[in-house]
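Q: What structure does this chain adopt?
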Amino acid sequence: MDTEESEELKKERAKDPGEKSGTARTHEKKTEESNRELHQQIDSLKKDLEKSHGEAKSNLDGWQRERAEFSNYKKRIDRENELLHQTITGSIIKKYLVILDDLELALKSRPVEGEGAAWAQGIELIARKLQSILDCEGIERINQNKVQFDPNLHEAISNEENPDFNCGEIIEVVRQGYKLGDRILRPAMVRVAR
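A:
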């Protein structure tokens, strides 16, 4: 059978080269159809690939957006927790500031000699311990003299003439003020120069 086909092909080839046999035309048609199908498959695969690329890009964009939103959410929660911590700490510490004021007031008129002196040293140690707790919690004193009066930090209880101070400077801090970070727990009570 193979020999017969070969002989037919030889005869076909021996004919006029401009004239094609039925077998060659059939073979050509099959090749064209095969090529057409192959091109259609390639076009279909290209479309699928473009679609997949588009979906991948969309998924990546969505993932990156969600990741950024989660990161912002985390930062916001951290800020809110920090603010809540400062608020709670501030409200608790405010209650103890009065005790520290009383201890400092007692120490201003402490006895230097006798039994009262030893007692005053004990009171001073207690006041220092309380102050060190405040320092550990990040509580800062607002107690500077010779600085300009700032209504955000100070509460004026008097406005006096004083030749040693410029107008608006703090002469004396009567009661300590305290702040926690940027938050004022209690403004300092001060005497201000006129």
